[in-house]
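1st attempt posting a full record on here, be nice pls
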Amino acid sequence: MAEKEESRLKRLEMKLLGSFEMDSSDKQLDETVTRSSKTWELFAYLALNRARKVPLDEIISVVWGEGGRNPTSALKTLMHRSRSVVFEHLGEGFDLVNSYRGAYGWNPNVVCAIDVEDFAESCEAAALAGSDPEKQLSLYKSALSLYRGHFLTKHESPWIEEYREKMRKIFNDALFAFSELMLDACKYEELIAALLKITSIEPNNERLHSYIVKAQLRSGNSAEALKYYKAATDQLYRNLGIRPSEYLQDAYTEIMQSHGDMETDLSVVQTKLEESSEMGGAFFCELGFFKQAYQLESRIAERDGTCVNLALVSVSAQDGSLPPLGQLGNVMDNLLEVFTSLLRKGDVISKYSGAQYIIMLPTQTVEDGEAIMQRLMSTFSSRYPRCPLTVSYDIHPANIKL
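the predicted structure (as tokens):
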């Protein structure tokens, strides 16, 4: 009897991470066979809720939302067409859904393995295996290998977006735990390869980029780490208009610290520290270094009774919104050229976001700082009279937390 029951079962693998896909033996069904996104959303919802009968009103709500004319009839039509698609590509035996009075439910004779569930279970098991790092790493590797992309990437239904964010959080928690374990195990090259692959899924994940920088640095390749750091921060500026997070700033600090190798000859140390005599104008640096320079200069000003001004220069469209990236890049480059050519050697500049510069001006008074900023703005306006964007600034004395 048990063998008979077993023979009636159909086995199916459903992939919901990335694009929708169903596989059975040598047959496959994916989103390319029909343009109806609701077909895939219907099957996904019923499969994820296969332990229960799902009321018609609930299905209508998640598939169509509020509104629509005669939604019950529309659902029946969708179900008929969706079944036909499955029969055509997987075979007549794959009747995935049972009809009940006032409800639909997943057919219990179709045993369905779903990648998103396997992924979440592996992540949970890894988190619980904290006393065994090797087991944790194995489970995290297994979980991350399942993550082909975010949950049903091409779909935008509210329930899908909510589920996607839930899975994305689990993914990020697993990714960061995996990265820490790999760093502790000194598996730098393997970690770099794994994370670079994941950047195609999470291109603007700052913490992900910071782990790549750290792995490159600890593998002995500080030049490559610095190069990647600059490329990542530039990408974030261009794509999101944001300044580096604390994770990337910490990675940059680690890069700088790596250059402090042991040296017993003070004259050699002094030569390394000295600037080239040809280098003039203000000092342009990364935000992580700017913060340290700002804190140091503020302490010196407090001790000596002088003043440090902090100016924030912002670029916006005429209506105050973030401007198009093409225009923004040119204006930001032109501003930096003006700043570095007019400001003094003791002044420090950094990019605060994709549309902002922050400038530190050690002066005798706040009025001196205001006069410097007015001169900078006047020079920029005269050099670039046709600038299509609005450039504004704000200036305050020190003791403002960055």
